[in-house]
């Protein structure tokens, strides 16, 4: 995101908690407290942002060992988000672009791609916290006049990807047989460069104010198509075994991985037509370009 904005001539400050950001064109502001506590008092003199893009989050995890996962998600994803929004608004920000998640709406699409008008029904602590943050920001906008833009991406991939996507690449690289040859459910994805470009439009376009947008690549893939595409770019042909979906879900119940298998075998497509129509946005990179870049990163680092 920072690289995209800087490349297009914007003056960018990166608010980070730890590590060396390492971009010459971007100023770094390190604030190491949990959930952005004390942010107003630590605000640098002379920093008057026009817009803040909020990407920080406690992310979805498969096995959460927090004593109270819901409270942990809310502390970061709701309270932390509001701290940033209020502090930025007090320093002159006119807009916040909040990166939420399609999980704030649903885990599956029910046969119809999910549009922004769908009534949200999040199913896990992460999704509920993202939805609560959306609602809190809308209220803040009504109270203060801060323009709010909510962006809900599906699974984000690209160089540096982790979690389940990285596990799939590891399996492909090792030549493991995968019982997913019969999984025809289609899943929307978004390449991180496409997401960054969409977010830049949400930062700069007046028509984005006080809107919610779903963002995705131009084409949705089935799980089998995704694996074959990644295998092609990794030069490790996918070894897919055609196991009926019903058997996979039954195995998930028996092994305690029912939720993971449901997500893997169910369709989750998003309707991204609104941002394309209202902001004249099109993904600048094709799915194949995104998969190729991801595979190139994997080959160089694993």
Can you tell me about this structure?
- The chain is of the alpha/beta class and 302 residues long.
- 42% of the residues lie in helices and 13% in strands.
- It has 11 helices and 10 strands.
- It has helices at residues 2-7, 39-42, 69-90, 125-144, 163-173, 192-204, 223-234, 245-255, 258-265, 273-278, 287-301; strands at 12-16, 26-30, 51-54, 95-99, 147-152, 155-157, 186-187, 189-191, 211-214, 221-222.
- It has a 4-stranded parallel β-sheet, with helices on both faces. The chain has a two-stranded parallel sheet with strand order 1-2. A two-stranded parallel sheet has the order 6-8.
- Strand 4, helix 4 and strand 5 form a beta-alpha-beta unit.
- The chain is globular, with a radius of gyration of 20 Å.
- Pfam families: Epimerase (PF01370).
Key attributes of the depicted protein:
302 residues; alpha/beta; four-stranded parallel beta sheet; two-stranded parallel ribbon; 11 helices; 10 strands; 42% helix; 13% strand
Quaternary state, please?
Answer: single chain
Largest sheet: 4 strands, parallel
Order of helices and strands: HEEHEHEHEEHEEHEEHHHHH
Mean pLDDT: 94
Parts with pLDDT < 50 across at least 5 consecutive residues: none
Distance from N terminus to C terminus (CA atoms, Å) equals 24 Å
Describe the strand arrangement of the main beta sheet, using strand numbers: 3-4-5-9
Structural class: alpha/beta
Residue share in β-strands: 5-15%
Residues in helices, as a percent range: 40-55%
Our Rg estimate from Cα atoms comes to 20 Å
Tally of helical segments = 11
Globally, the shape reads globular
Number of beta-strand segments: 10
């Amino acid at each position: 995101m920072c690289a995209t904005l800087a490349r297009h001539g914007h003056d960018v400050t990166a608010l980070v908690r730890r590590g060396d950001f390492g971009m010459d064109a971007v100023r770094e502001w390190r604030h190491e407290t949990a959930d952005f506590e004390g942010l107003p008092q630590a605000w640098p003199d002379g920093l008057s942002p026009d817009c803040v893009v909020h990407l920080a989050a406690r992310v979805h995890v498969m096995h959460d060992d927090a004593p109270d996962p819901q409270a942990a998600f809310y502390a970061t994803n709701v309270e932390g988000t509001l701290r940033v929004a209020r502090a930025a608004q007090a320093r002159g920000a006119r807009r916040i672009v909040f990166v939420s998640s399609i999980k704030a709406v649903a885990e599956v699409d029910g046969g119809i791609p999910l549009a922004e008008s769908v009534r949200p029904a999040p199913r896990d602590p992460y999704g509920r916290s993202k939805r609560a943050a959306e609602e809190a920001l809308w209220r803040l906008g009504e109270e203060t006049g801060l323009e709010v833009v909510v962006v809900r991406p599906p699974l984000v991939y690209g160089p540096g990807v982790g979690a389940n996507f990285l596990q799939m690449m590891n399996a492909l690289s090792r030549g493991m047989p995968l019982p997913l040859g019969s999984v025809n459910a289609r899943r929307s994805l978004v390449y991180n460069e496409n997401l960054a470009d969409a977010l830049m439009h949400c930062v700069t376009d007046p028509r984005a104010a006080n809107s919610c947008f779903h963002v995705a690549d131009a084409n949705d893939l089935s799980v089998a198509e995704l694996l074959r595409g990644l295998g092609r770019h990794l030069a490790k042909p996918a070894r897919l075994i055609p196991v009926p979906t019903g058997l996979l879900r039954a195995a998930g119940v028996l092994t305690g991985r029912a939720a993971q298998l449901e997500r893997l075998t169910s369709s989750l497509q998003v309707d991204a037509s609104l941002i394309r129509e209202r902001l004249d946005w099109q993904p600048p990179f094709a799915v194949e370009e995104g998969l190729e870049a991801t595979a190139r990163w994997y080959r160089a680092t694993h």
